[in-house]
Amino acid sequence: MERKSGKLSIDDEGKLILTGEVFDGHGSYDFNAYVDTGSIFGIILTQELADAVCAKVKGEVVISTGAGSGQTRGQIRNANLRFGDLVIENYQITVVQGDRNLIGIKFLQDVGVGMLVDFHKGKTMGGLITSERKLVRSLGKTAHCFLEHKNDMAKSHEPCPTCGQQGEL
């Protein structure tokens, strides 16, 4: 069975979604989370998911739900999370009642990921999210050489010499 966890996609409304899993010793539960780089929270998960893995309540919090829609009560809990090969144990999450999970920029910074989304022809052609720092540095170096020095070291106009892929994500 193919694992959904760690896939980056865009829904029909154009919102960026990352799939993940919350888990404990009894099992794991898949979830989709909207990537919200404007959110000051690391991860907001539904109470249903947090309860499914018996994530213990550490405290209470009042949060703004954004866009002038008021405030809601939430809880601070710790949970184990998986996004593909990236496993984070005992990460502090914010839990709210509802049906929407969010991943904020704080989480992306906390776990040191790089994210690249190819918005092409009005929709995504794919995306990449990785915690592999060597890959992130390689992409950054390639972009630097191309943008700053006009050196196309990846030879982007040529297909991959191994498989012929053209470079779309």
Describe how the helices and strands are arranged.
Elements: E1 8-10, E2 16-24, E3 27-36, E4 43-46, H1 47-52, E5 57-64, E6 71-83, E7 86-96, E8 102-104, H2 105-110, E9 114-120, E10 123-130, H3 133-149
Parallel strand pairs: 3-8, 4-7
Antiparallel strand pairs: 1-2, 2-3, 2-6, 4-8, 5-6, 6-7, 9-10
Task: Summarize this structure briefly.
With 169 residues, this protein is an alpha+beta fold.
Description:
The model has no long low-confidence stretch (mean pLDDT 88). It contains 3 helices and 10 strands, in the order ββββαββββαββα. The chain is elongated. It has 169 residues and is an alpha+beta fold. The chain has helices at 47-52, 105-110, 133-149; strands at residues 8-10, 16-24, 27-36, 43-46, 57-64, 71-83, 86-96, 102-104, 114-120, 123-130. The strands form 2 sheets. A 6-stranded mixed β-barrel has the order 2-3-8-4-7-6. Strands 9-10 form a two-stranded antiparallel sheet. The protein is 17% helix and 45% strand.
What is the count of DSSP helices, taking H or I runs of 4+ residues? Answer: 3
What integer value in Å does the Rg equal? Answer: 18 Å
Q: What are the secondary-structure elements, in order, as H or E?
A: EEEEHEEEEHEEH
Give the strand order, joined by hyphens, for the main sheet: 2-3-8-4-7-6
Main sheet characteristics: 6 strands, mixed, barrel
Please report which band the strand proportion falls in: under 5%, 5-15%, 15-25%, 25-35%, 35-45% or over 45%.
Answer: 35-45%
Q: What is the rounded distance between the termini?
A: 23 Å
Counting helices, strands and paired strands, the structural category is alpha+beta
The shape is elongated
Oligomer: single chain
Per DSSP E runs of 2 or more residues, the count of β-strands stands at 10
Helix content: 10-25%
